[in-house]
Design brief:
single chain; about 280 residues; mainly alpha; f41 fragment of flagellin, N-terminal domain; two-stranded antiparallel ribbon; 4 strands; rod-shaped
């Protein structure tokens, strides 16, 4: 910085220096005030080009992870609907097993067998109704068509989970339609075959429930992982782009004082050349 000579009045170097310092302080104070107003350390790319680029990349990742978290929650809802339908079918099959077991005993009379048959046939029909009604967004879940479905569980292209329910759980498909169970309880010996059909159906449903449950558990773990990833990503982004309010306030206070002293010195520098007039008296 140039040092002025107060005996030279044509160019006031001291005033120029004071003005330059005042402008610098004003600029710094404006930056402090903007950061305090927005809460951000980086308000334009020029503030920190590298930091701005990194923070935007982290923001994109964080938002992608947030959408993936929603996807996981939706996938869990879908599987919960399928699980509910399967549990209802399982409950019906357990009831059917009770009735067929009753019919397997020779203590049953014809009227009782007819009543059991009618009830079993109604239960078989209800299984078909459950299969039809178990759907999400008009997509059938347990009719055997829900196969190869991909869930986006992350922000990367390869972050997917594929799931299928390939078994059709309609009564006829799992072997508990009227012809296989209800119509077979006319005698104890025939009821034996019907009981085997119901037991096989129960095993099929239990196996699928295990698969659905395991996938829901996996999605729950993925959900927790995504929550941690989102938090860590936001924390990293915050350290780059967010302003330290306490530090900025301290700096603003400092600059306010410097602004006053620089203004006073500029005024003083403008008056100093007048001292030369004493030489002419």
């Amino acid at each position: 910085m140039a040092i002025g000579d107060s005996t030279r009045i044509n160019t006031n170097i001291a005033a120029f220096n004071a003005l330059s310092a005042l402008k610098g302080v004003n600029r710094s104070l404006e930056i402090n005030q903007l950061r305090l107003a927005t809460g951000q350390r980086i308000n334009e790319v020029a503030d920190d080009p590298a930091g701005f680029t990194i923070s935007r990349s982290l923001e994109a990742r964080s938002r992608g992870l947030s959408v993936a978290l929603d996807n996981v929650a939706t996938a869990k809802n879908v599987l919960s609907i399928a699980e509910g339908g399967l549990i209802n079918i399982q409950d019906i099959l357990i009831t059917m097993k009770e009735k067929v077991t009753q019919a397997k005993s020779d203590t049953m009379g014809d009227d009782e067998r007819d009543a059991i048959k009618a009830e079993l046939n109604e239960l078989s029909s209800e299984i078909d109704n459950i299969v039809t009604e178990t759907q999400f967004n008009s997509i059938q879940l347990i009719d055997g068509a829900y196969t190869g479905k991909s869930y986006q569980t992350g922000e990367g292209v390869s972050n997917t989970l594929t799931f299928s329910i390939s078994t059709n759980f309609a009564a006829a498909s799992i072997g508990v339609a009227a012809a296989s169970v209800g119509n077979k309880v006319d005698s104890a010996s025939n009821a034996s075959g019907a009981l085997g059909q119901v037991n096989n159906a129960l095993d099929t449903v239990a196996s699928e429930l295990q698969s659905v449950g395991a996938t829901i558990a996996r999605l729950t773990t993925k959900e927790a992982t995504l929550n941690v990833a989102i938090t860590n990503t936001e924390s990293t982004r915050s350290r780059i782009i967010d302003a330290d309010i306490a530090s900025e306030q301290l700096e603003a206070t400092r600059n306010l004082i410097l602004q006053q002293t620089a203004t006073a010195q500029l005024a003083q520098a403008n008056i100093t050349p007048q001292n030369v007039l004493a030489l002419f008296t």
